[in-house]
Structures
1.
Amino acid sequence: MFDLENLEEKISEIYNIHYLDVYRFLICFSGNQDEAEDMTQEVFIRVLKNLSNFNGHSTIKTWIFSIAKHVAIDHYRKKRFSSIFKEGYFKNMVSKEKGPTELVELSEMQKSVHEGISKLKPNYRAVVLLRGINEFSIKETAEILNCSESKVKVDYHRALIDLKRKLHIYVKEAIGNAN
């Protein structure tokens, strides 16, 4: 698929383009910066090892995120997290346009969303992170999760209902505030 003469350049380009998105996905999934860094490294090691197997049926981005999902699930299974997202992505988000009271309210909302997402089943969590946070299309999410578009729609719908129940708020507003 890739020209051997330009392979090193292509690998570097793929890494530079996709590193930050993969890292963000994994930090949302794990809630731990060190673990996300380790998993991101593992993703790109697997990408490097399997680049010759990339078939082009999906975009390189969805292929990489599919690998990231597998790395995250493997990590989750190995560690059997007791608590996810203790310190993480949402707590560090600060808006410079809001006043102190609004920042406290936003921080509390982010913490609630953060905790609610962490309590979802792993497959629901992955769908919410991909669709709601990373804004992948239904088709891209289906490719990453290796399932049908219908399953993505159903799981996303059920995850939002479950998240709404856990948060006792209107979920679309919460997801919007979490971005």
Note: The helical segments are 7-30, 33-50, 60-79, 100-118, 122-133, 138-145, 149-167, 171-178.
2.
Amino acid sequence: MKRRTLLQAGLAGAAIIATGTTAKAQSETKPTEESPMDIVIAADPFAVDLKDAVVEHLKEKGHTVLDVGATKDNQVAYYDCAPTAAKALQDGKAKRAILFCGTGAGMAIVANKFKGVNAVCVESVFAARMARSINDANVLTMGAMIVAPWMANEMVDAWMDTKHTEGLEQFSDFLKGALKEVDDINRAQCK
């Protein structure tokens, strides 16, 4: 399988989004992968407002949200709440997690230290969709310095509504094999 071909197929998906068929429009025509879902959420103090906007959006869609991070009245650093969220995933308290900090990078770095956690920091709807389609990511991270609340909600919808290999079915064998290889590394290296 040529990686250039995979990249070109992914770019075709970007063209769909660029022409106005957004994740929101797609989610209105198809059900979410698993709805409702238990989702663990965490933010550091810098990203509480963004987190709150996404929590409201998720609850409107019928999801259950477990907030383990900072609130307006309680400051928790990203390196303290990301482990709590990762452990909630490991313990089966949630199927997915969404984490927020200034850039999203700190949350992704910390969350990825935990076995079974595949966190991806995204800055676009397309990246959120590909995080599921290509990488089957179970954790989405984003930054309040980068993403507006309306865009965060679009990104969350794209990520929640996409299945692994969706839109890239012709590369399904490669993507599933790659995921197995990454899972093997995860089991060997993460705690």
Note: The two ends are 32 Å apart (CA to CA).
3.
Amino acid sequence: MSLLTRKTIQNGVIGGVVGSALGFVPLVLLVAPLLGGGVAGYLERDDAKGGLVAGAVAGVVMAALSTVVTGVILFTRFGELPFGPETPLAGLGIAALLSLAATIGQVLVASIGGALGSLLAGAHPSEDAAGEGHERNWSVVVGSLVAGILTFAVVTVVVAVVLEAFIWLSLLVALPIGFVAGAGVAVLGYRYVTRAPDSSVNWRGVGIGVVAVVVVFALLLGGVYALGQQRAEQSEQSTYEYQVTIATTQTLTNATVYVPVPETNGDAELGEQFVEDVQYSRETPAIRGYDDTPARVNFTYELVDTEHGRMLAISADRIEVQRAYYREVENETMGWREPIPESQYDPSNPSMGVVDDGTFTFSVTATSEESIDTAAPFGTEPLLTPQFNRTGVECRYGQQERHRCFEYDTRVYATYGAPEDTTVYVSSQLDGRNEWVAGEWTGNEYREWAHTELLGPGRGWYVVQGELEVGSGRYRD
């Protein structure tokens, strides 16, 4: 007798339509194939084989409907389907493989739902159980639901944890897998307890079905895990970035600044690279008509030995700073800053303001061939020096296992001529990062910075507080 009868196809179509409709409901869409297949199997009211076939038909119907809906949306949005002579063949091939994998997965899950639906439809309490009244039946239902919920929770957590380091929002993958496992335990448990006294359980068939499902999902998870591991390893980048900022509100003359420099056991490789290949940018006011290419300042850079250790020196004979006055102008759709003369500037008017072009950022980036020890960089990775009296403190945010924070004292030297009301901001910052692709760019880092704000002319050495944060972000091990 053929399993693919007219009734089976009809039930499969109904289940496919129901599953497709549920696919538009948030969160429910994650388990729509299982529910659609379950409806088809329940309507089939046959043995597990018949329900499985009805569920498979429902899965095929859902896949076909989703393809049609996707095509209509693309055509409506872009005016044509994304197929043409300029379409990359490699892209089409990857898209076809992903679509095929999605279709197979949808049919498989719907088939499982169909088998469970048919078992649920065929379940009935034994004569003894029926004789004990309604309370016994509800206890079976509750017990089956509890077992299913526990299975759902355990499987979801395990899968999410396994995939968490490689797939962004791994819970979205774990939820449907956990739901399938929980539904299977609940239905099979209920079916077994409520079987007729003279009925026998086809343990061989159940065992084969369970093993098949476990093997398929294990292969699926193993494949996803392996691909995620491979992609993460291929995309991993480990970099150091050393950045110095000097911001002044007015012109400085004969300026020299010493800032902490990264060192690893006396080796200042990043500092040396900074001196040879530093990139610097100047922040210019975002005002209409303002010259965004001011004259370049002739900075010089060198590593110097000081009484506090080796430091980075940045010098310039003159750092010319221009002030710009503006007012905010808005219309119905946008706003902008319009320049005004200094004589028109009113500090009490909230629509007026003053900015300058005295902010300079100097940076250098280095790539590491090996993964950076961002959780414990002491002695193995570059850290800003000098450092005095480093102590552990409570982190302001973040509760990761490896996350720790420290404070320490360091030194900054600054001499320059400037008006007494000049404010000069000086900062030195170091970042060490490991990054990779896991659905999105993610990774871990350690970072530290020391900064201070000086008023008036530079007068020599200043004590500055530094901050160090290690073990921030996600780790794969």
Note: The chain is about 40% helix and 30% strand.
4.
Amino acid sequence: MNGRLKRLKRGRTRVSAMLAKELVDEYKVHSMQVKKGDTVQVLRGNFKGVEGEVTKVDSKGAFIHIEGATREKSDGTVVFASIHSSKVAITKLSLDDPRRKDVLERRRRTKRVV
């Protein structure tokens, strides 16, 4: 059984990305799950350097769609490019969800202060 089929049978994957250095210093957390509304910067690939807001998260393949990262199809329509979540860094967290604040606090508490 190939890896893609195994992943599809497992169900959803967590779509996480690393945080920018400023956010790591602020929250003491190195990575978080990517959500719609976060601002990310692309670190690898054809769209390297593009920064924009996440418009869609595809949890099956761990891909995200970002404003500003678009491509033109052969028939002329413009579509969002699918970018893997491991190739981006979160530069601004969307803290609208109170559970997300709880996750940040819980993960910060588990870190050992040296």
Note: The mean pLDDT is 88.
